Amino acid sequence: MRLLPALALAAVLAVPARAEVLIGVAGPMSGAFAGIGAEIQAGVETAVAALNAHGGLDGEPVAVVTVDDKCDAETGTAVANQLIGRGVRYVVGHACAAAAIPAAKAYAAAGLPFVTPAVTNPRFTDERIGPLVFRLAPRSDAQPKAILRALLAEGPDVRVAFVSDGSVYGRGLIDAVAAGFTAAGGRPVATLDFTPGEKSQNALVGELQDAAVTRVVVGAFHPDLAVIATEMRARGLSATLLTGDAAALNAFPDLAGAAADGVVVAMPAPAPGAPGQSEAAAAIMALGAEPGMVALTSHAAVELLAATAGAADVGAALRAAPTATVIGPVTLDDKGDRLESGYGLFVWRAGTLQRLD
Predict the structure, then answer these.
(1) CB hemisphere CA count around 279 (13 angstroms)
(2) Cα–Cα distance measured from residue 256 to residue 324, given in angstroms and rounded to the nearest whole number
(3) In order of start, what are the domains of the chain with their CATH numbers?
(4) What are the backbone dihedrals phi and psi of residue 343, each rounded to the nearest 5 degrees, phi first?
(5) 41-65, pLDDT tens digit by residue?
(6) Is 294 exposed, middle or buried (0-12, 13-18, 19+ CB in 10 A)?
(7) What is the pTM of this model?
(8) What angle do CA 66, 92, 39 make, to 5 degrees?
(9) Contact 298, 44 (CB under 8 A)
């Protein structure tokens, strides 16, 4: 083996390793919401690949550090501290408010810019945890308005039941829709709660059938919604189910099968034809992930953060002017919410979501 001269070896050892800009990715990478975590991961990775293909950030390559928050508050704080300890420059992720809010407090204390592509709970920005905490997902208090539009299009005499799993998400959704429906002159024919996680909801479906409902607004997560939809169809109840974005996961039709057809979902609606959107979607699919709104928004979050590279005040830079992203222009308000956010109505047909409005 040929040995390097001592001076040459010293010179080689003195060359510093090329630095990397680390972007932290956090989300439910396991469990019932792992599909959302996969979308966040794929969206960030495709955006990072695009950045690296154009020289990275500030001339440095970008790498991703991923953690699993399990949609849990204690775990959310723990993994946030892990990312901080790893020296990440930015954080993208968290899908559940339970994990995102405590994690955001840790990022804010460390002075790290943090963007969530998926948390819709108004508390996330209403509490104004820190000036570098941002949200690209639309607020959940805008979601009931989309469902209400669909109900009111049927007229105030439509026979509607409101059904909740009792969770913060489910109860909040149906209470807001019911309040708007009542204010517009409508009269619900039933307001029902059920116990989530049961293998059968026949008693609930029986009450809906007895009430002769034609529309059912459900505040619940996709496994329970699949049980309700399946048993409604099995009993010949053709009432239309309307629900929130928790049923936008592909896992819903996987569980409900043909019973998913016709279920109307209020969910974030991307700006069609935004520059780079089709390319980003293709890259996300190439990673084996669904190019849904969460994935595209996660990609956009990296674009947004990259646009602030070198800025002395990241928050001011993001609020100064709209930033072009694959989901369309992004303008942030003083709370850190995206001004362009909104919900659209979609319907499940043969395993795919189709736009209604």
Answers:
(1) 10
(2) 37
(3) 21-140+271-342 (3.40.50.2300), 142-267+345-355 (3.40.50.2300)
(4) -110, 145
(5) 999 999 999 999 999 998 999 999 9
(6) buried
(7) 0.72
(8) 70
(9) yes
